Amino acid sequence: MTTSQYIKENLEFVKAKMMAASLKRVQEAAAFKAPTLVAVSKTKPVDDVIEAYHGGQRHFGENYIPELGGKSTDPKILEECPDIRWHMIGHLQSNKMKKLASVQNLYMVETIDSVKIADALNKSWIKLNKMEKLKVMVQVKTSDEETKSGVEPSEAIKLAKFIIEKCPELEFCGLMTIGASNYDVSLGPNPDFLKMIECHKEITCIPDLPKESLELSMGMSSDYEHAIELGSTNVRVGSLIFGQREYVDASSAVISISLKVSKVLIEGLRFFNFLARSSQSCWVDNLMPSERCSKLCLRWGFSSKSFVVNELISNT
């Protein structure tokens, strides 16, 4: 099976599961809009994104701004994916908002978790003189896991109001959360998702807010069906579409670096030995290579450590 066939078949499978889950929605969520699939490509290559796009997928998500920026400006994606819609779904830093705002075809930022972030992003968007507002969501921390980000549920409505009232270039679209990892749905509805639904109810009480358009972004590869049944309108799925993330083998990396270190040390000693002999510095001829290196370094005003470190940096 080719990569193209693999990705397209996976897309069809996930979308079929999403449709089935929509039909099982609880009564309170029956009126919510049909869920949107955000394909999370993460470490996958540009070609995989293009294959998914050709398979009908339009919404794509990335966790890191550098990776999002790189893919969004890739010539192949710009040429072959004119209608692509990028979602930022990773943790944000206020000093990176200018770079985030400049992402090509940025459609939505789902992880606003502070007034500082919202304000910085709003100011960055203003400077770009965009015709349309930037869609954003407030990330809510519904799980007790320390690795999860977001505002506390009790603070969600406060941050939403700040965006609506103080950030004219941002369009508040709803709430986003990441539930606890590996929750067993046989125990009943995920309590993290239930917290999210309660937050959603509170948000709908904000005056003049179009309640029918408010979104709930919850659910990933392991729990997207359950999330949709409870009312999610936006699911983020990666590995079920593109396969598992690709990681660098740590042992291979260590071996590679060790070989480079050895090469730098050997070349450094050869270099200093050459200089010593060419300058007829007989006073170092009887020294061991390591001592010769140190003596010459001291004579010329820098340490052998700094030489090795600088060479290592430039060579790796």
From TrEMBL:
Sequence intervals crossing the membrane: none
Database matches in PROSITE patterns: UPF0001
Residues that bear N6-(pyridoxal phosphate)lysine: K42
Keyword vocabulary terms for this entry: Pyridoxal phosphate
A Pfam family of this chain: Ala_racemase_N
Entry's Gene Ontology molecular function annotations: pyridoxal phosphate binding
Superkingdom per UniProt: Eukaryota
GO cellular component: cytoplasm
GO biological process: vitamin B6 metabolic process
Domain Alanine racemase N-terminal: 19-245
HAMAP family on file: PLP_homeostasis (MF_02087)
Family the UniProt entry places it in: Belongs to the pyridoxal phosphate-binding protein YggS/PROSC family.
Biological role stated in the UniProt entry: Pyridoxal 5'-phosphate (PLP)-binding protein, which may be involved in intracellular homeostatic regulation of pyridoxal 5'-phosphate (PLP), the active form of vitamin B6.
Alphabetical list of PANTHER family matching this protein: PROLINE SYNTHETASE CO-TRANSCRIBED BACTERIAL HOMOLOG PROTEIN, PYRIDOXAL PHOSPHATE HOMEOSTASIS PROTEIN
Protein name per UniProt: Pyridoxal phosphate homeostasis protein
